């Protein structure tokens, strides 16, 4: 296989870089630094035409095509592929009259939130605004506002995508309903998204944040939290994490190096109503810090306080049908107080509400109807890197008896990018059929995140 890089330094023209070129490392750099991407070529697209040219070049040279915006979801080294980096396709235009945003294929939620907030609008994003809009929405996308408003892709109106034939298509529910339904949750294998149009919701403020309890109280808190979330109305959501925090001086001193239970709460209800909802769990133990308060919706990141700097991690995930006492015992046995483990986080997100209902027409969202999402995270740095994959997987294995699949956005590194049948049989068959129709040679199914 021969690849001839044609490096261009012009800011308006795409840089096409091979591993020997200066700038290659920066162009392929990802948020998850566990894997070092090693594509044969990376094209830093500056326009949809650059994406078209890159996909055509890959076809001509027999290369697989992979896509990266932020690298939050990097799972393999993309070796032998032509990587289209979309991070410069980051324009965001908000139309307050229609409450929509038109977003470039490499934009992040942070950019959308900043553009929407002055108009009193908010997108349905996830726990971290550093995540890319396209990658998130292609996988459905769950966030703290989803129990009230649905998953992110419920608000997707239109997608521009460059398919394997090197054609840029404008896709919506009327113009190409089957491809559009696949893009609403089908995750990968259909092309490179260059632009998306998403609906926004009129949310300006929240009563939200996290309560940090001593980890030693986990045995009492977890069952109470499990029972309490079933009482919440759809306009409230919660998650809980067993966190082993590093001795990081940027953390508040009482949290540095501590094992804690982090209970997160978000509601669009008034502060008074929100405080009444939270009251039964707020004092389950003496909090180390109680940060739940009235806040601007644009500050949603503060609810989870996910890491914002690139780091090497290994993750695992599952959807759970329910969380009986035996499941909580199993979780505590691998991640609870007294367990010596390098695990950073074992997290449970309560689902339900509008997540289960769907809106906006046919889609491919996996996991509607599951009660909880489980997520585990272990550090891939010395001296524990060797055991981190087994540690993250151990949490998922412990809860396997209650597992009912996994979310495509949280598939985890264990699967090397292969999503497999995360959808029910009929939806998965339809996704494969659409993927094969638009990509008969499988250029989007050889590397990176892929259906099979
Ligand atoms: C800290 C953190 C918090 C997260 N929180 C949530 C959350 O609350 N809810 C949730 O649902 N998910 C969450 N995720 C998962 C996240 O949604 C997925 O990893 C998502 O794929 C990241 O997209 P990205 O563009 O940022 O990452 P990238 O690694 O750049 O992209 C990941 C994949 O998305 C696809 N993709 C990205 N851009 C395009 C494009 N333009 N065209 C075609 N395909 C594209 C590709 O398959 C690519 O391999 C979180 C991840 C992290 C690391």
Short account of what is shown:
It is built from 12 helices and 17 strands. It is of the alpha+beta class and 452 residues long. Helix 7 packs across helix 10.
Task: Show the helix and strand layout.
Elements: E1 15-17, H1 24-28, E2 41-44, H2 48-61, E3 64-68, E4 81-85, E5 92-95, E6 100-104, H3 109-116, H4 133-138, H5 146-149, E7 156-162, E8 168-172, H6 177-183, E9 192-199, E10 205-214, H7 218-229, E11 236-244, E12 259-267, H8 271-282, E13 289-290, E14 293-296, H9 301-304, E15 313-320, H10 325-335, E16 345-350, E17 372-379, H11 388-398, H12 425-438
Parallel strand pairs: 2-4, 3-4
Antiparallel strand pairs: 1-2, 5-6, 6-9, 7-8, 7-9, 10-12, 10-13, 10-14, 11-12, 11-16, 15-17, 16-17
Keywords:
alpha+beta, Uridine Diphospho-n-acetylenolpyruvylglucosamine Reductase, domain 2, Vanillyl-alcohol Oxidase, Chain A, domain 3, 5-stranded antiparallel sheet, 17 strands, Uridine Diphospho-n-acetylenolpyruvylglucosamine Reductase, domain 3, disordered N terminus, 452 residues, 8-stranded antiparallel sheet, globular, binds flavin-adenine dinucleotide, 12 helices
Number of strands: 17
* Strand fraction: 15-25%
What fold name stands as the CATH topology of the largest domain? Vanillyl-alcohol Oxidase, Chain A, domain 3
What gross morphology would you assign? globular
Main sheet, how many strands, which sense, barrel? 8 strands, antiparallel
Architecture of the largest domain, according to CATH?
3-Layer(aba) Sandwich
Overall pLDDT: 94
- SSE series: EHEHEEEEHHHEEHEEHEEHEEHEHEEHH
């Amino acid at each position: 296989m021969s690849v001839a890089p044609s490096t261009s330094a012009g800011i308006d023209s795409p840089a096409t870089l091979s591993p020997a070129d200066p700038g290659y490392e920066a162009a392929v750099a990802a948020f998850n630094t566990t894997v070092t991407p090693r594509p044969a070529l990376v094209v830093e697209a500056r326009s949809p035409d650059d994406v078209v040219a890159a996909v055509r070049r890959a076809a001509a040279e027999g290369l697989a095509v992979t896509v990266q915006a932020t690298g939050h979801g990097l799972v393999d080294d993309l070796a032998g592929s032509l990587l289209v980096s979309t991070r410069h396709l980051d324009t965001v235009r908000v139309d307050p009259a229609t409450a929509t945003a038109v977003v470039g294929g490499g934009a992040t939620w942070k950019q959308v939130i900043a553009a929407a907030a002055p108009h009193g609008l908010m997108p349905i994003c996830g726990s971290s605004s550093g995540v890319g809009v396209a990658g998130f929405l292609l996988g459905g996308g769950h966030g703290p506002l989803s129990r009230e408003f649905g998953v992110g892709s419920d608000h997707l109106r239109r997608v521009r995508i460059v398919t394997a034939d090197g054609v840029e298509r404008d896709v919506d529910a009327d113009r190409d309903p089957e491809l559009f339904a696949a893009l609403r949750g089908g995750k990968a294998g259909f092309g490179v998204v260059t632009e998306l149009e998403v609906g926004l919701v009129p949310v300006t403020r929240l009563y939200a944040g996290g309560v940090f309890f001593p980890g030693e109280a986990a045995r009492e808190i977890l069952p109470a939290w499990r029972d309490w979330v079933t009482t919440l109305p759809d306009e409230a959501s919660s998650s809980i994490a067993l966190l082993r925090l590093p001795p990081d001086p940027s953390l508040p001193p009482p949290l540095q190096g501590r094992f804690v239970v982090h209970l997160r709460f978000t509601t669009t209800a008034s502060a008074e109503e929100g405080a009444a909802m939270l009251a039964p769990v707020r004092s389950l133990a003496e909090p180390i810090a109680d940060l739940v308060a009235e806040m601007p919706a644009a500050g949603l990141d503060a609810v989870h306080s996910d890491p914002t700097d690139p780091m090497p991690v290994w993750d695992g995930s599952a959807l759970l049908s329910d969380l009986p006492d035996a499941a909580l015992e199993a979780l505590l046995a691998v991640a609870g107080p007294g367990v010596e483990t390098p695990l950073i986080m074992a997290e449970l997100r309560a689902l339900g509400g509008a997540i289960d209902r769907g809106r906006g027409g046919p889609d491919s969202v996996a996991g509607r109807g599951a009660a909880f999402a489980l997520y585990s995270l272990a550090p891939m740095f010395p001296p524990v890197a060797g055991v981190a994959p087994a540690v993250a997987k151990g949490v998922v294995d412990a809860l396997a008896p209650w597992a009912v699949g996994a979310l495509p956005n949280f598939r985890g590194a264990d699967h090397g990018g292969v999503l497999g049948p995360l959808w029910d049989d009929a939806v998965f068959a339809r996704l494969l059929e659409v993927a094969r129709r638009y990509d008969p040679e499988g250029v989007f199914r050889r590397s990176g995140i892929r259906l099979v």
